[in-house]
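The freezer alarm interrupted the setup, so I double-checked each line after restarting. Inputs confirmed:
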Amino acid sequence: MIEAEHLVKRYGPKLAVDDVSFSIPKGKIAGFVGPNGAGKTTTLRIVAGFLGMTSGRVTLAGHDVEGDPLRAKRALGYMPETVPLYPEMRVGEYLAFRADLKGVARKERASAIERAARKAGVHDVLGQRIGTLSKGYRQRTGLADALVADPPSLVLDEPTAGLDPNQIKEVRELVRALGDGHTVLLSTHILSEVEATCDAILVLAGGKLVAQGTQEEIARKRRSFSVDFTVRGDPEQAAAILAAREGVARVRRGGETDAICTFRCTWRRTLPDEEVALATEACTRALLEAGLHVRAVHRTTSSLEDVFGELTRADDAPTGEGDA
Amino acid sequence: MSGFVPILKRELLVFFVTPLAWVLVTVFLLVQGMHFFLIVDHFSSQPATVAVQSPLQAFFGNTVLLYLVLFLLVPPLTMRLFAEERRSGTIEALLTTPVSPAAVVLAKYTAALVAYAFMWAPTALYVVILRRTGDVDLRVVGATYAGILGIGAAYLSIGLFASAVTRSQFIAFLLTAAVMLALFVVGIGEFVAREGSTMHAIATHVSVWAHMNELASGVVDSRRLVFYGTLTAVPLFATTRLVDAWRWSGT
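Predicted 3D structure, all chains:
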């Protein structure tokens, strides 16, 4: 369980994190998405107890990060964005050191390292010096470190940054597998990543949480930007009628067979959400009144990328802090 | 003090697996060996001087070489302790584990102190050599080594603080050396300032030279203990506060 209530982080006059609240139940995976500088890293650092918060409250597995930091940190596996490691140590040595730091009992240490190394896929490089590892292995060493004490909460900052497509797939599968038993909070700026791995999505922009919910809930926020009309009859006439309607930005013609033609009618950005449906009705009625036959009216849905763009664009400029 | 032992172990491991340690040990022992040879040579050619001071007293006390050696020894031992972790970002991984800032600071400090003691340890052989040829007062030897450890403890503490102030190891090195030099220069005031003046009193109080001279002749003054105790404790405390403050200022 990872909970944040009214989290605020101020750097002088700058608000880096502005009243962010969320709650991730046990066994769920939540993903922070947002443009660079949205405050993702800052928020995760606060959750991990590395940065102090201006106001608010964060609890990890029920332990207050401010009030009981040692217990909260004991319940946490954290992988910072840059995956900082000691290059002069061997992977096995490093994991032993980290397990020791996190209070894994001496007699359980070997098995804990073995388990974490196997899960993260670094068991074959335990004897290798970290300085000689490839980026992918370094990333996985960071993951093994986060897992070594088997903490209930995991915070992973951009776990797939800098990996190749195969490695990304592996890490995603690993994160998905962590879902049973661990509560995971991760961040990314790649949307397909949250779609692929997360139960809940938190959209952050300019330090504010602009949307949160399951994928379906976020998807419902998708605004329809266009409607496809499939019309039988004179295509020129149909195009002219649609183009003349109020609220229509442009009409694109496509998919013509015989006298059946599909028009993609894109709405003006200024058209309010609730009037999109009315405009659709009006267009359909106009086509029918002109003696044309309407075969299908299909409201196109925007991709998650469109929603993301829509949600994060409207807000004020990013504060410039966070992902540095 | 959770986290103290693993951090101490790691610091010692890193210290002894990097070339820095062995370069330091080698240079240090070469310099000390030459120093010892010169002193012994001097005393054996002029036996009359033994009445004034013993070879050990000359080795640790009335000599500028000791300070040159400390300049060589202390800043390289402490410069990386925090500066490197901040530069590479590993401090973030370190401080998000269940460790208290005090444990981190004390573990790093203890590691530096152990390394420092490790470097001085071989010089105990000189005492063994001297004992074969003459009389050595072991209480004086004890007082002398206590002095070496005390001065080292204070300088290392200052060095640790300097390492936490900056991300640059080089600046940490310079800061530490500058503070050590300043203390030494103020101490010289003991011989320059008019006797009885405030300046003279201050100079006498901080004069490492005079302190070591005293200790090397077997005099243990409690004022010195308080002085070095304070010089050790204050930077340690300040470093702990600084590490804690990184949560607000950022590292």
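Quick read of the result. Chain B touches chain A through 27 residues (CB under 8 Å).
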